[in-house]
Amino acid sequence: MKRIKRHKTALFVAVVCLMIGVFGCGKENRDEGTPIDISYLNKNETKLVKETHYLKSTDTREKIVEVLTLLCTVPENRELKATLTSGINIINYSFDGEQITVSLGERYKELSTTTEVLTRAALVRSLTAIPDVKYVMLTINGEPAVDVNGNTIGIMTADMFVDNAGTQQLDAVGTVTLQLYFANETGDGLVAISKDVEHNADVSNVPMERVVIEQLIAGPSEGEAYPTINPSTKISSVTVRDGICYISFDSTFITAVNNVTSDVTIYSIVNSLAELSNINKVQISIDGSTEGKFRDKYDLTTFFERNLSLVQ
């Protein structure tokens, strides 16, 4: 069995800082060393763009540190942003000769679905560009990373993230038009809004039902209408069986936003989901439980159906 050398947090952070100082993140003598493509997110976090950097190291482990350093660093091209940003920190990594396991902090879980997929693709593609690296495993605070359905992602290879036309960009964007229902100014009625959303299920593996709910939580564009769901609400799970969409939110969902009524919040969700051809009814739970009532009005055991009487 190969012996895995583990680099702990303090040592790794110190080495990364040293690498930044020594190599200047590729800003000097950029045409000297081993060329390698690093994947960065564009400003809108809708695609990856490759940029070639030249690694100074000859040792594989030192190359790994250089690549991870570059992924944490804002590139010179201001149209791009660092792959690991938004407070995401690298806790440690290990390398066994073919596979790198990178452990990231809890903030990684806060990434939006599209950004998470692109970030993961950038990590895998950049690290496997190192000649001796074939596989990448991602953990969050030491626990295996999971997808939006709670399934363990496992070992990844570069060919799991296929480029579209051309070789320089991985595009996670397709456009779908959603009919979403938000609140009116007084919070006692619904306003129907058509919204074009960037989504590609082939890349992100995210069901459209979850996309709808994420858009409702994100809220409408300014001036169009008003939000119906507390923006701090987290989605615990979304599943569909026999035309029924089962949604579980965390307890933040119970907290009202502005003056929005319970009716408006519930039917904002139900009506928006019912616009999808595969949804007829919706059941909502809190932290996976259907016990109790939503704001002392609606039993969580209720299967809600479309109700357009609130729509103005």
Structural features, described:
- This protein is of the alpha+beta class.
- It contains six helices and 17 strands.
- Helices cover 22% and strands 29% of the residues.
- β12 (235-241) and β13 (244-249) form a beta hairpin.
- The radius of gyration is 22 Å and the shape is elongated.
- Mean pLDDT is 81; it is low at 1-29 and 164-170.
What brief labels describe this structure?
four-stranded antiparallel sheet, 312 residues, 17 strands, alpha+beta, 6 helices
Topology:
Elements: E1 5-7, H1 9-23, E2 34-42, E3 47-55, H2 60-71, E4 80-81, E5 90-95, E6 99-104, H3 113-127, E7 135-140, E8 143-144, E9 169-171, E10 175-183, E11 190-198, H4 201-204, H5 208-218, E12 235-241, E13 244-249, H6 262-274, E14 281-286, E15 293-294, E16 298-299, E17 304-305
Parallel strand pairs: 6-7, 13-14
Antiparallel strand pairs: 1-5, 2-3, 2-4, 3-9, 5-6, 7-8, 10-11, 12-13, 14-17, 15-16
Helix pairs in contact: 1-2, 2-3, 5-6
Strand arrangement in the largest pleated sheet: 1-5-6-7-8
State the end-to-end CA separation: 67 Å
Structural class: alpha+beta
- The global form is elongated
**Radius of gyration (Å):** 22 Å
Query: How would you state the average pLDDT, rounded?
Result: 81
Task: State the helical fraction.
Answer: 10-25%
Query: Which H/E pattern describes the elements?
Result: EHEEHEEEHEEEEEHHEEHEEEE
Strand content: 25-35%
Helical run tally: 6
Number of strands: 17
Largest sheet: 5 strands, mixed
- Contiguous uncertain segments of 5+ residues: 1-29, 164-170
